Amino acid sequence: MRLAPRNTGSALACGAASVLLLVSGCATEESASPDLIDGADFIRNQPTSTDESIVEGASTQTILNHESLADAAQSAVRVEVESAAEYDYLDVPHTLSRARVLETIGGQDLTGKTLEIWQVGTASAPMESLARPLRDGAEYVIYTEPFHLEPGKSTDQWVIVAQGSWKLAAGNSFNLDVATEDPAQLAARGIDPEVLDDVAPDQAEELRTQVWDLQLAASPEQLESSVAQAWAR
Questions:
Q1: What pLDDT is stored for residue 33 in this prediction?
Q2: What span, in angstroms and rounded, lies between the C-alpha atoms of 62 and 56?
Q3: Within 13 Å of residue 93, how many CA atoms lie on the same side as its CB?
């Protein structure tokens, strides 16, 4: 499996939706409009502006390594976003994206499917410490799991697991796409300071390395290797 980037150059059609702590399943390539969750109201198609204001105050889970992401996810996939739109659900802005799976790197094979993916927040107002909402026309590697409104009730839609999202950037690298002013500080949030105080400086640095292995920028080969190793345990 190669994470060879595809320079398709085509900005694919717009129009999708968004919602809260999101769902399961996957839509087929032929599916058109998403089946919205009751109470989710369309706001607009995703704006093209890249300006953002990070929203604080959310209760989020920080996952610091590929093994933990693999434990929580059903699949790790490379996707190309075909559309994205913003919705209001329970008075909280959400983004619903439609993304075609180009390749499955780990977990259940979803290659060729089109996934409808819910995320809290919007492109201009992403939720602090979580993966930014997917951008229309962009390519990503994401860890994903089915979205359930309640246990055992499938919605045939998906969510991104915690910080498990890398966006393909210029120069053929995948950049960790987390809503934060300083991604390098995410690692420190998941480590109890009292633990680090009880060990020598060199041991503390080793502990950080062992816990945090989400590369802020990775080549396709590096990212593929990290994801594959997490599932090969």
A1: 54
A2: 14
A3: 17
Residue 83, SS3?
Answer: strand
Per the model's pLDDT, the better-predicted residue between 140 and 196 turns out to be 140
Q: Which two structure tokens, joined as six digits, stand for 226?
A: 């990290």
Among 18, 14, 15, 13, residue whose Cα is nearest residue 41: 18
Buried b (16+ CB within 10 A) or exposed e, 182-203: ebeebbeeebeeeebeeeeeee
HEC string of 141-197?
A: EEEEEEEEEECCEEEEEEEEEEEEEEEEECCCEEEECECCCCHHHHHHHCCCHHHHH
CA 132 centroid distance within chain:
7
Kindly tell me the sign of the dihedral angle through the C-alpha atoms of 164, 167, 168, 174.
Answer: negative
Mind listing the pLDDT tens digit for each residue in 37-63? 777 888 888 988 878 888 885 556 677
| DSSP for 84-135, written as a single string | EEEEEETTEEEEEEEEEEEEEEEES--TT-EEEEEEEB-SSSBBTTSBPPPP
User: What pTM value is reported for the model?
Assistant: 0.77
Q: With 60 as the cut, is the pLDDT of residue 220 above it?
A: yes
Provide the 10 A C-beta neighbour count for residue 4: 12
Question: Scanning the structure block, which residue is given the tokens 């694919």?
Answer: 12
Give the model confidence (pLDDT) of 150-198 as tens digits: 777 778 899 999 899 999 998 889 999 999 887 777 766 666 667 667 7
